[in-house]
Write a structure and sequence with these properties.
The chain is α/β, with parallel strands linked by helices. The chain has 5 helices and 3 strands. It has a 3-stranded parallel sheet with strand order 1-2-3, with helices on both faces. Strand 1, helix 3 and strand 2 form a beta-alpha-beta unit. Helix 2 runs parallel beside helix 3. The longest helix is centred in the last third of the chain and has 13 residues. The radius of gyration is 13 Å and the shape is globular.
Length: 105
């Protein structure tokens, strides 16, 4: 559903793990990265930390998209370096607006 909605607004590529995300982002710098907190291998928090501590990717906006809605989880996302934290279920319009705002900054 997310891919079908976002493909009209953005050019998309996918990574199936945090490690794959990092290497893909270095190889082909994206305008923004959406991460789920729950991912195989490296979780979203660790992936975000790596992205934000890697010179090639440190300025790419990262949006955490997660079903984990507690204040503690959101704080962990921001502490890891994410630029926005969106809780599932979410409004696609809100997500698109957040991405556009972050990319324009």
């Amino acid at each position: 559903m997310l891919a079908a909605t976002l493909c009209g607004e953005f050019s998309l590529s996918y990574a199936n793990s945090g490690t794959s995300c990092l290497s893909s982002a270095i190889a082909e710098l994206p305008d923004a990265i959406l991460l789920d907190v729950c991912m195989p291998g490296l979780d979203g928090y660790d992936t975000c930390r790596l992205l934000k501590n890697t010179p090639e990717t440190q300025n790419i906006p990262v949006v955490m998209v997660s079903g984990l809605e507690s204040e503690r989880e959101q704080k962990a996302g921001f502490n890891a370096g994410c630029d926005a934290y969106v809780v599932k279920p979410f409004s696609v319009k809100v997500l698109v607006d957040k991405i556009k705002t972050l990319v324009q900054e």
